[in-house]
Design goal:
The protein is α/β, with parallel strands linked by helices. It contains 15 helices and eleven strands. Helix 2 crosses helix 9, helix 5 runs parallel beside helix 6 and helix 10 crosses helix 11. Bound molecules: NADPH dihydro-nicotinamide-adenine-dinucleotide phosphate and 3-Dehydrosphinganine. It is an enzyme of class 1 (oxidoreductase).
């Protein structure tokens, strides 16, 4: 009995602090939780003719809202209007305006019904390193994403304040790149970080009018905008952005509306987004006492996870540059016709030396017999290849086997000895592999002094291999 009482007491003592914290948070979180209705309300979406905005419009219509969309292209607006009407039977009002043009935006708001839910979603993104990017593009992103949002909100606010006594919402489409700066997104991230300042301050200004601000943070989302973007996105931007995966526009729209309806200030869209939101909670309001509890309790741990992400990203950036340096070295050496064979020859010796050194170091550090043998084996194969490169058949026989052995050894080495990000390293590896094959072929073709016969031959179960036979004229 006494034993039971004691353990009961211990349990109570253990539970008391978290329960007390929950209670305190329940009492203090501000602004208070509120529900924003969508059905029969007027939802106005900028950038509603494409991608996430279009998915938001569909979603709002399917929940029985009256929907208006604003964008520049009338054709795209008409098409969106017809699509939504066809699938939901809801009539959509369309407004053609550039958010950068305050007068045009005011006119649209004037013509529209009073707005209950304003979703400022328009956005443009042209990723590039700042050094290469034109200032016109920087200004373009800041103008459309940030100043355009100011124009829209400033135009809509007076009428929104005067509405009936039902809670209203202003939602802003940010991006996970608006929570953490990402390589290639200096201007884009800045424009989206700007929205956060706008939103935090605005919430304090409009709370007394029962208007509630939401900030939505999607990861990469499959939209026409993203398709365009990925055509010119720096490889590193993609590698880092991929840490958060990709979503469908409909899924983002669903998360966005869940957030808007519960008047959440921060609206993450996936698991990484939830982590990111806890890591960057800062001084943002939090209406949910449960989420507030998670933020308080998990803060230290999530910060640690964030630092691991940074570790991963900076390693990726470092490796990418190292790889690029090698690439440039070979490229510049391959350019000259006379030197091309020799540079390839020296290039291989150089790599062979590297491999042998790596193998030796590896052995010193790990003392693992098998990987040592494989590594040395590969190194020797590299070396042989470099010696026999200009001799024709022999070199290429070795090359085939060496590629297989090298590939397996490399994968094993990456898998066993180098922890995350495995996929990142594999990417760089395949990048390197493809480059080796491509550049050697290109060089040989460039010289014009040799005849190339490219044969694809199947080796039993080992798959497809490229064999190149070179003969000097
Ligand atoms: N796709 C993604 O990976 C992610 C996107 N986001 C954000 O989501 C939002 C929507 O992106 P997404 O759906 O991919 O983009 P899309 O390019 O597919 O669509 C953009 C929409 O904005 C409109 N628009 C663009 N410029 C203006 C302007 N100056 N004035 C008025 N309307 C304009 C476009 O119409 P028109 O050209 O006719 O004007 C279109 O309707 C953006 O704010 C973006 O930053 C956030 C995270 C990830
Ligand atoms: C505790 C820490 C957890 C960290 C998880 C971090 C994941 C961050 C990835 C950032 C992805 C940015 C995508 C931007 C997409 C976008 O806006 C463009 N496609 C343009 O539209």
């Amino acid at each position: 009995m006494a034993y039971f009482n004691l353990s009961f007491l211990a349990l109570l003592l253990l539970l008391l602090p978290p329960l007390a914290l929950l209670l305190i948070l329940y009492l203090i979180v501000r602004p208070r939780s509120v529900k924003i209705p969508i059905k029969n309300r007027h939802v106005f979406i900028t950038g509603g003719s494409s991608g996430i905005g279009l998915a938001l419009a569909h979603h709002a219509a399917s929940e029985g809202a009256r929907v208006s969309i604003l964008a520049r292209s009338v054709d795209k607006l008409e098409e969106a209007k017809n699509n939504i009407q066809l699938s939901t039977g809801i009539d959509v009002s369309i407004f053609s305006a550039d958010v950068r043009d305050y007068d045009a935006v005011s006119k649209a708001v004037e013509e529209a019904d009073p707005i209950d839910v304003l979703i400022v979603n328009q956005g443009v993104f042209v990723p590039e390193e700042l050094e290469k990017q034109g200032l016109d593009e920087v200004k373009f992103m800041v103008d459309v994403n940030l100043i355009g949002s100011f124009n829209m909100i400033k135009a809509a606010l007076p009428k929104m304040k005067k509405g009936d006594s039902v809670p209203r919402s202003i939602a802003l489409m940010s991006s996970q790149a608006g929570q953490v700066g990402i390589y290639g997104y200096t201007a884009y991230s800045a424009s989206k970080f700007g929205l956060r300042g706008l939103a935090e301050a605005l919430q304090q200004e409009v709370i007394s009018h029962d208007i509630h601000v939401s900030l939505i943070f999607p990861p990469d989302t499959d939209t026409p905008g993203l398709t365009e973007e990925t055509k010119k996105r720096p490889q590193l931007t993609s590698i880092i952005a991929e840490s958060s995966g990709a979503m469908k526009a409909e899924a983002v729209a669903k998360k966005a509306f869940d957030g808007i309806k519960s008047a959440a200030f921060i609206v993450p869209c996936n698991l990484e987004g939830a982590l990111l939101s806890i890591a960057t909670a800062g001084m943002s309001p939090q209406r949910s006492f449960v989420m507030a509890f998670v933020e308080v309790v998990a803060a230290g741990l999530v910060r640690l996870v964030a630092l691991f992400f940074q570790w991963n990203w900076y390693n990726g950036i470092h490796m990418w540059h190292a790889q690029n340096e090698k690439l440039n070295y070979f490229r510049s050496n391959f350019d000259s016709t006379a030197l091309s064979f020799y540079s390839l020859y020296f290039g291989y010796i150089w790599v062979a030396g590297q491999q042998l050194l790596a193998a030796a170091l590896h052995h010193l550090v790990h003392c693992k017999g098998t990987s040592y043998t494989a590594a040395v084996g590969c190194g020797i194969l590299w070396f042989f290849e470099s010696l026999t490169f200009t001799e024709g058949g022999f070199g290429y026989r070795i090359r085939t086997e060496h590629h297989l052995a090298f590939g397996i050894w490399y994968c094993l080495r990456k898998l066993v000895f180098l922890p995350p990000p495995f996929y990142l390293k594999l990417r760089l590896l395949s990048f390197q592999g493809i480059w080796y094959v491509k550049s050697s072929l290109l060089t040989l073709m460039d010289t014009g002094s040799c005849e190339i016969i490219l044969r694809i031959k199947r080796f039993g179960i080992s798959g497809l291999f490229f064999k190149t036979y070179v003969q000097k004229n």
